[in-house]
User: Fold these one by one.
Assistant:
Number 1:
Amino acid sequence: MKPKIIISVDNHSWCWRKTMEDLAYHLSGYDIDIVNAREFKKMKDYTDYLFVFMRGYANAFIDRNNKNKMIPFISTLSTGGNNLKMRMAEMNDIAKLGHAVVVQNKTAYHECKKAQYKNVYIIPNGVNTIIYSPAQEKPRIPFIGCAANTKDERAHLKGTGYVIGACRELNLNYVEANSENPLSYEQMADWYRALTIYAQPSDSEGCSNSVMEAMSSGLVCLICEGVGYHGEICRDGINDASGEVVFVKRDIKDIKEKMGLLIKDKRLYQRISNNARKFAEDHDWKYISRKYKQIFDEFTPIAKQQKIEMMNRPQILSEKTYNISSNRQERVVELSKIVSQFLKNTGGEKNTQNIIKVLEMFGYLSIPTREIEKEGNQNDQDSK
């Protein structure tokens, strides 16, 4: 019988879900369900599943105030650059409870190692190279494009203002696929094929799905050196015959010069285009999925043992068992009663301090200690 796992995606558009469907297709040794983070958090329990792979930050899937409702998991850190430390601060206390974190670039890997995560793996996004394939003929009129969330301050993050400025000076057509101009998964492939150059000079990336799809479509991509997976791994095609991208600065002048050169020098363009496609083929999901399979296979016996331990854990504060009210004060009173009853049943000392330490140790305590101790001691006095 195949191990049953769940993949949950922290994104409500098709992008991450479709990439996880591509991953699941190649993981034939597992029975996989895919849900978004909102659906995952609404599930009453996860007893049917061995573990969850969180395609997103762990804090988006697990409520800090209800760590009882846990399942063995692996989470993702899908960013880099300026956003990295902020994202790590948001997820650290939850993500460190998991077996591993999957990152998408070397910068994130080193930061997680410094933060003393147990298991850290670099796995870039894969791409479906069959759907995202080069056009048979390039358009006669050059089109420059970017596919990203460019709403408000994210336009500056993606550097689209510099690209638009360069296009204006060169009198080139610029198009965007964004939340205001949404396209389906199937439409995106044709959208890429209608472009000449893909330009995304971001100052912060994890591993851009869009850049990977554009490279798979045979486009020359303008990106920033050192930013995200592609900025770390790829080489500059203007200065290196084996280069797969073109590195640009985040300014209109440099982007304008590189665009003009690529449009003028067709042999240079074609060489970089061919290298880009080869790079994408090496990152097809059929290869990237093997990296995930290795981690999942290693985690499976560990997750089985964790599930046994979780099932045997005393459900002292289970809301399902004790029907604890969501009202905070009532929860404190109810908890103090449970503490007193537990001590009475086990013949422990008549104080709450020892049981509080136990509750904290097992992660069941979500109400401030001083309030529990105060209410619990009052109950002890009452019981006398």
Note: Residues 316-326, 366-384 have pLDDT under 50 and may be disordered.
Number 2:
Amino acid sequence: MKVSRFSGSALVPKSVSVGYELQTLEHAVEGALVLVELQRVSGLEEGEDIGRSVSPVLALVACRVRDLGRVVRGSMPADQFLAPHNDALDPHAGDDPDLLVPPRTRAARSASG
């Protein structure tokens, strides 16, 4: 997803890395899984509520997945989705390919429905 961000006084085109976003979401889900497994296998200290730790993580993941879908469909501007963890770096030889979804113009969104 190509987007633009201001850097100082100049507008600089930026790319949102779908791969980095998905990797971050994967890590969040794995963290929630570790908490659940910790509770299941060894238990937690008395008074610790696993739901208070896992629920916010899963809520955040759900919101990011929802917004990623909106950006890919073009119903949400990509620049609203750009974050430091998904800021794409310039590709180098040997890098795995990443998915870049170009932003749709307002006219293209209107024409598609």
Note: Residues 18-85 form one domain.
Number 3:
Amino acid sequence: MRTICLTALLASLPLLSGCASHALEESSVAAGDITGTAERYRQLLDADPRNVKARLDYASALSWQGQYRAAQEQYSALLTQQPDNLEAMTGLAYSYAWNDQYALAERQFKQALDSSPDNFGVQRGLAFTYLRSGRSSEALEQLKSLQQQHPDDLEITAAIETAEAGVIEGSLKRDHE
């Protein structure tokens, strides 16, 4: 009996150390330290290539570090395996948006909304994609809807002000043409 228990314990050590490493990495990120984060997640992923959480976190870390193309590759690889993974769809959409690939971001956010129409993070990402791409009217409509759901969200309130200014500016340009 002791041999079986010891064998089971020894077999689980890599998994336990991987879980401990993952938890340690998450606490570093939560504290704002992203230095080397992508590399450490890559090491976790190298140890277990089928680890979905490690792949998602690796892709997120790449995005945080401005390595958008590499992040997109990781999210896309995961979506090949799990086409309905909402976290991967959303992460891919944000990485497109942060890399100023607004058409791709919009398409990916809309695909994520098809899977989860009430998802605040996805709705918000789409609204900010509209805003960043200069589509103030569409952003304003989306942001006002979000503000009804989250009236105390200061970032949405500020984005509404930016979108309203963009709508006014666009209207003034059209009047002078």
Note: The chain has nine helices and no strands.
